[in-house]
Write a structure and sequence with these properties.
Strands 7-8-9-10-11-12-13-14 form an 8-stranded parallel β-barrel, surrounded by 5 helices. The chain has a 4-stranded antiparallel sheet with strand order 2-3-1-4. Strands 5-6 form a two-stranded antiparallel ribbon. By secondary structure, the chain is an alpha/beta fold. The protein is built from 10 helices and 14 strands. The radius of gyration is 21 Å and the shape is elongated.
Length: 333
């Protein structure tokens, strides 16, 4: 349920209303917009007399949120959320470019790529230390050592970094990570999502291979309901009948998610297509479609990459793409 307050309501009257609602056993989420304040009521609202609340002189309207996702719903939070990662702001018109290798392989590699993508305009570095691989014989990542190398790259460039967490037992190792990524395979690992709700770190939540938008938002709800509202959604392609690309990039998800939710939406054209030459056109399409950012794989030597070299751009290719993205942002931003 949401309670929309009239413009100019005093802090004292709002505090009295909130205290009364809390006494009913509800949690109250306050969303302060430019022209109105919205109170989101979390919990069993069946005992709340809607007519009584609506009759109060400080209340403009009362509505029930019919979607199963509450805290991630735009009805619950009409203003678009902005996620801050250091000095980087994401969402509500703030666009971010996240770039780096699929997997951290060595200090030289990650620092070289980090410097190159920063020079091209990226403001966050991506790099996998723990890698979920389809085959047990593929490179699984450098794990804890990879995290340390990402910290070296951050120190060298000043770029905050995004890296994937696979197992709840590894969470203590992520204490100094800037953004925790939850990959497609873990989108519905509900125990992991609940635990992330107890952290204070931004979460990049990727859509599962065969999951609906509602299921993606419900996974975000697990994190938010546990206390962490710093969630970004990521469209990274879904499994379809397409036989020429790794996945099918669902660009319609971007405006639909913006309509349904206040959370920022990032697009990953690298995992969606699996083919480097298709990454730029899909990245440009996502930018034109209103994405709040892109996450793109960049490797200084894709042919010899230990992971996903076929979908990785070279630094000079990323630089060229970044220029085109900025041109499109100048039109649609």
């Amino acid at each position: 349920m949401i309670v929309v307050l009239k413009h100019g309501v005093s802090e004292e009257k709002m505090a009295q209303l909130i205290a009364w609602l809390k006494a009913l056993g509800l949690r109250i989420h306050i969303s302060n917009g430019e022209f109105q304040t919205v109170l989101g009521l979390v919990g069993d609202t069946s005992t709340v007399d809607m007519d009584l609340v609506e009759s109060l002189d400080i209340v403009e309207s009362v509505k029930r949120v019919t979607e199963p996702f509450k805290m991630s719903s735009r009805k619950f939070h009409p203003e678009s959320s902005v996620i801050s990662v250091g000095d980087v702001r994401i969402g509500a018109g703030n666009f971010v470019m996240i770039a780096g290798p699929c997997s951290v392989e060595s200090e030289e590699q990650i620092v070289t790529v980090a410097k190159a993508v920063k020079a091209a305009g990226a403001t966050l570095l991506r790099g996998g230390a723990f890698k979920p691989r389809t085959s047990p014989y593929d490179f699984p990542g450098l794990k804890a050592q990879g995290l340390e190398l990402l910290k070296v790259a951050r120190q060298e460039t000043g770029l905050p970094f995004v890296t994937e967490l696979m197992n709840i037992n590894d969470l203590p190792l992520f204490e100094d990570v800037d953004v925790i990524q939850i990959g497609a395979r873990n989108m519905q690992n509900f125990d992991l999502l609940r635990e992330l709700g107890h952290t204070d770190k931004p979460i990049l939540l990727k859509r599962g291979l065969a999951n609906t938008l509602k299921e993606l938002l419900m996974s975000a709800e697990y994190i938010m309901a546990s206390g962490n509202e710093q969630v970004m959604l990521c469209e990274r392609g879904i499994r379809t009948f397409s036989d020429y690309t790794r996945n099918t990039l669902d660009l319609s998800a971007v405006p639909m998610l913006h309509e349904l939710s206040h959370l920022p939406v990032i697009v990953d054209p690298s995992h969606a297509t699996g083919i480097a030459r298709l990454v730029p056109p899909m990245a440009l399409a996502a930018t034109a479609g209103g994405a709040d950012g892109l996450i793109i794989e960049v490797h200084n030597d894709p042919i010899h990459a230990l992971c996903d070299g076929a979908q990785s751009l070279r630094p000079e290719e990323f630089s060229d793409l970044a220029d085109k993205v900025r041109a499109i942002r100048g039109v649609v931003g």
